[in-house]
Structures are given as C-alpha cells and as structure tokens.
TrEMBL record:
It comes from Calycina marina. InterPro entries: 5'-Nucleotdase_C_sf (IPR036907), 5_nucleotidase/apyrase (IPR006179), Calcineurin-like_PHP (IPR004843), Metallo-depent_PP-like (IPR029052), Nucleosidase_C (IPR053828), Pesterase_C1039 (IPR014485), YHR202W_N (IPR041823). This is Metallo-dependent phosphatase-like protein. It comes from the Eukaryota. Residues 51-274 form the Calcineurin-like phosphoesterase domain. Coiled coil: none annotated.
Amino acid sequence: MLLPRCFAQGSRRLGMLLAISLFASLSCAEQPSAPSPVAAPMRPLPWGQLNFLATTDTHGWLAGHLQEPQYSADWGDYISFATRIKEQADERGVDVLLIDCGDRIEGNGIYDASSPKGLYTYDIFRQQHIDVITTGNHELYQPNASDREYQLSVPNSRGNYLASNLDYIIPETGEQVPMAQRFRKFTTKNQKIEVLAFGFLFDFRGNANNTRVQKVENTIKEKWFQDAIREKVDLFVVAGHIILPGKEVKALYEAIRRQNWDTPIQFFGGHSHIRDFHKYDSSAYGIQGGRYLETVGWMSIDGIPKKSEKTKSISADSAKKDISFKRRYIDNNLFGYHYHTGLNETTFPTKLGQNASESIRLARKALDLDHSYGCAPKNLWLSRAQYPSNDSILTWLDTEVMPEVIVNPKRKDVPTLALTNSGAMRFDIFKGPFTRDSTYILSPFISKFLYIKDVPYESAKRVLTLINNAGQVLAAQNLPSASVLGPPEQISDCEDSKAPEPLQPLTFSDQRPLSSTSSKHLPNLIPGYTTKDDGGDDGDDTQHAPISFYNVPNCIQSEISFPEKGAPETVDVVFVDFIQPWVLAALAFSGAVYKIDDVELYREETLTELITGWIGKHWQKEC
Ligand SMILES: *[C@@H]1O[C@H](CO)[C@@H](O)[C@H](O)[C@H]1NC(C)=O
Ligand SMILES: *[C@@H]1O[C@H](CO)[C@@H](O)[C@H](O)[C@H]1NC(C)=O
Ligand SMILES: *[C@@H]1O[C@H](CO)[C@@H](O)[C@H](O)[C@H]1NC(C)=O
Ligand SMILES: *[C@@H]1O[C@H](CO)[C@@H](O)[C@H](O)[C@H]1NC(C)=O
Ligand SMILES: *[C@@H]1O[C@H](CO)[C@@H](O)[C@H](O)[C@H]1NC(C)=O
C-alpha cells in the first residue's frame, strides 16, 4: 500500500533511470522491514532561543529497532528530522545544535558483523551534521576501534569532535597526542550566542593501551581548562560520556561555577543508557538521551543573558526574561517526527536522509543481517522480567543454555559451576526470527569461557554471592565495583569510584505510572518509557503505559554435572573472561588462592557463538 505511493514520489524526484526496487526503498525511509509506528497521545516540543537534539549510546543501531514500532525510525529519518527542525529554527530565528555523547559502536550487526568492524557505519553516521561529538568507553576497548576514532570519526566530524581528557598514541611513532581538540568556541547562527563546549569521558580504566584517559579531577587543573572557563561566553556546554549525577560532572560543574557564578551551563550525559534530566542550579542543567537510537533528547534554553556588548542589540529583550531550561525525550519513530515537524510522509524526508536510509539497507543486505538462526518462541527480557522467571533471558541462560554448552571433552562429567555476568547480555529477545543481527544485539562481546580446575567446593560456592552482594569486599582489592558486571542501566556511579559502593537494589520498578485519571481518558496507551526526572513526569514526548524494569544480579550461575546427592569435594569453576579479576578475588577471599597461570581456556567459541549454536538446535528454523 505504502510502496506504490513512495515509488511514484521517488520516480518524480529522481527520474526514471534507476531501478524500481531502489526507488521503493529510497523514498520511504525507515528500513523496509521496520514495523509502522503506532499513533499515540503526544506532548509537543518546547522551543527556546537555543535548542538541542542529543543522542548517546547508539551502539550501532543505525537501522533503528526492526521489532519495536515505537523506535522504528532509522538514522536517515533522524537526519531528515534534524534538517526539518533546523529549517523551522531558521524561520523562528532561533538555533538548533546536535550533540552525540559516544558509545556509537558495538551492539548491532551493522557495526559488529563487518570485517573490519564498522566498514559501513562511519560513513553513514557522518551524514548527520553533529555540532559536538565525544568518545565513549566502547570506542576504546579494542585498539582497532580507537584507531578508527582517530582516523575516521575525528576527521568525519569536521572539527566538532572534542576530547577534553582523552589522548591517543600514534602507533607508528608512539607519540601521545590529543584524540581531538580539547574544546571548541563558536557562535550560533541565528541568535549569535557565544558557546564554549567541552567533551569529556568519565574516569574510565578499561581502555586498550593506545589511548590515555585522564581523570577529570586532574584535567580541570590544567592551564588550558582554567583559561577556557575564564572566557566570557554566553553558555558553557559540557558533553560527556558520564552519568549526570556522577562525580565527574560534579567536579566540572564546581570548577566552572568557581569562575562564573551565573553563566548558564548545559550538560549532556551518557553511559547508563537511561533518560535523565538533572538540575544543578537554576542556570545549570543536564540531559541524557537514553540508548540504542530509542531516544533523541530535546533541550531548549530561553532567556540566555548576553555577555558580549556587540551582540546585545540582537536580542535586547532576552535580558529581561528569566532563563528557563526545558526538556523532552523524543521516541525515535516517524509518527513522532511527523508530529513534531507538522510534516507528512511526502513532505518530511530529505534527500540526504533517504540516501542514508538506503545505505543502511544496502549494508544490512551485504552483511546478511536478516539471516535467521531460528525462531524465538516468545519474548525473553533482560530487565523487563524478574530474575529468576520464565520470561527472563538470564533464567533461560542459566537453566537451558549454559548447562548444555558448558562442556569440555577433557572435563567430562566433572561437577562444574559456570558463571556469566548479566552485563554480557545487552538486550531482549523478541518472539520471531532470531537473526545474525540479533546475535550482536543480544551480546556483541567476544567473551570466551575460561576455567580453573578442581577448586574446593567450599570456596567455589561462595563466589557468586560475593560478586553479587559483597561489592565492598572485592572493591577493597582495588577492583572496580562489581556493579560494572551488570547491565549499564544499573550503573549508579562511575567505575573508578574509590569508595566501595554498597550494592543496593535499584528501584526501576517504581517508575511512576501515569495518574489513574489520565489513564482513564487515554486507554490503549503503548507500553514504553514513563520517565520521572528533576523536571517532573512529563518529559516523554509520547504518553506511554508504564513498563516495569527489574534489577538483575551482577552474575548468574549454573550447577552442571553435580552429584544426585551431597556436595562435590571439588568443582571446575568456569566463567566468561571478562569477570576473571572478580572471580580470582572472590576465590582468594574464600581461602582458595589462584594465579592467572592457573586459568585455562575452557571453550574456543565465544559466548555469543555458543548461544547461537543452541538456538539453531532448539528453536525451529521458520517462524
Ligand atoms: C549517500 O550515503 C553514502 C553513505 O552513507 C555516502 O557515502 C554518500 O556520499 C551519500 N551520497 C549523497 C549524495 O549524499
Ligand atoms: C586490527 O587491524 C589490523 C590492521 O588493519 C588487522 O590486521 C587486525 O586483524 C585487526 N584486529 C582486530 C582485532 O580486528
Ligand atoms: C600495547 O600492547 C601491545 C600488546 O601487548 C604491544 O604490542 C604494543 O606495543 C603496546 N602499545 C603501546 C602503545 O604501548
Ligand atoms: C502532505 O502535506 C502536503 C502539504 O501540506 C499535502 O499537499 C499532501 O496532500 C500531504 N500528503 C499526505 C499523504 O497527507
Ligand atoms: C516455567 O517453565 C517451566 C518449564 O517449562 C514450567 O514447568 C513452569 O510451570 C513455568 N513456570 C511458570 C510460572 O510459568
């Protein structure tokens, strides 16, 4: 139904020379297999003098969500949206800036399935003109990924990549250089607002040896930073791959405020994959735009006082207004994009956006991402179902998958405790085809199983409890908090915090439902985010029925080949490589001291390959 109309439009625009199939997908935008968005009650965007569109933690989801209508727009649609919003800003005489706070890679087939990784994604990503772009921790785990940041992302960003506390080591010379410029000062197009922007990464320690992350507390002592915050600008922008309540943002806020008691500051956060809005004072706020191209954060600032004399006349009336900061979380789908722009499927798309959508489609095809390994019989949730329960991915993993794949011919029938961290799983499994793409969405990591043989059971049996409940004990051994082993959504402070954090259960499940009166008037709401933040509970652009999210443990465990009765004397302790430091620390704490040399490889295949193999065997091929 949709295709012929799109085709007609495409052919008018581009002439009759190209193949029909190209037109069909070219002009429709979003991915051909994406579900259509569902209409829902909406809240409009609050506009100000200066407005922002902010993404973070997109993790390669350029194609959008092909199994969830609410997030079904792709990167090309976002390009069209940004272009249309900028056109409207020009008409209103205000400004729009785009921000991206890192973790653009790892977590979706279109990045992970190619060799080298990201073969298609860097070129597609750069089609969006972003004004401030920063680095996440995921860009720095693999040396090759940091190389690509330096060689591709930085030049692609046309001078807008900021690396305030990150250096890169040039492989040929060993020379340590800033990954990109430390900060950037610019004046906005229409309102002539003078902005000074920084780009930070939290105090991350897990990077490969070809980058250096400087602690934020040290960076703010450097001369260039101290000079920069003494510049007389109208607004400071701090984009960071940092959680908004994190200690790094607090240090930056305090440093800037010491020099500027009233200059507005706008923070942009990331890393923990949530929607968040944070008030520091009446002229300093932060927003975080979720994850996986589900959310585009919208921020508007109005009444920005002008510091510079020469531009005062341009908006003399702004001095009279009180400054205000407003936010909105935009669900990434075409229904919302049309609503916010007042355009429709004919008038909304831009050539640049359609070209990006087409590039995404071709890349997915080249990588055969729709190849199906099996058909999931039902939805399995990472944090939308309680653990343990039949709808939990982690229960499926520890009761069905692990007992079958944790086998090693050399250790046949040896009682085994097998541990996997819950953070090794990144997303849900939806009823329907489990594809090549799904494997990277579920777990993009190249984790392998390692083991220590013949560990006294009395010590081995305490490891799980220690990692899940006794973070303090392990943190005392100078390890990052074991909460880094869980999903990013459960990050409550940054990895390097010195003070051991108690592992408190987080209260995702009390995200507030819409009030009962509004529910009565708005039946059939689609389940989705019902965010509550420092601005209240009206931040989401789409009114949703609430979804409950549950806290999950840092690690799960399977008992394999245990005797029918009684406890074994010794067991093999099998674990994914990522958690080795915590396993060794927990064993040592329980009286079983092992060295790295005692650890051997248990299976060649990665965790993801083992899961895919299990699915191929147990879930029927066709849906
Ligand atoms: C279309 O997109 C591709 C990749 O995303 C890019 O290389 C190419 O330059 C784009 N073409 C146009 C006309 O924008
Ligand atoms: C990193 O890049 C080099 C050279 O491009 C390549 O030989 C190597 O296989 C890559 N390593 C990984 C882990 O991708
Ligand atoms: C990083 O580690 C690798 C492997 O251990 C080594 O070959 C390389 O020289 C190191 N690079 C730097 C910049 O230290
Ligand atoms: C889209 O909007 C244009 C301009 O308002 C209008 O002419 C056209 O009929 C609309 N198309 C659809 C499919 O609604
Ligand atoms: C969970 O699944 C198991 C095995 O399929 C079944 O025996 C059990 O009744 C299920 N529990 C619930 C609460 O559905």
